[in-house]
User: Fold this.
Amino acid sequence: QVQLVESGGGLVQPGGSLRLSCAASGNIFGANAMGWYRQAPGKQRDMVARIVSGANAHYTDSVKGRFAISRDNAKNTVYLQMNTLKPEDSAVYYCYYKAVFSTQTYWGQGTQVIVAS
Assistant:
């Protein structure tokens, strides 16, 4: 089992920044992928960014150049730095963890991000 605890969401004005954190604990394997999905009301959950333990990062097109994902492997923690936020970035952001050899994906409880004036 893997537990994920997220933090860092909140209310921010358009153009502002937020930093999300997600700490993983439990049965963590060194070869893994961690990242973030988001889900706005009435929409499906979509991938935002992910990073593999070897530090390869991938982003959805709408956040490229604005968001940056990073990880601290010693702390089993992944971060999402979100800059130049837009109202359309408003959603519940979910952290996930998946060992590369496993089909099991673990999810955090979600953290709300609201971008509004």
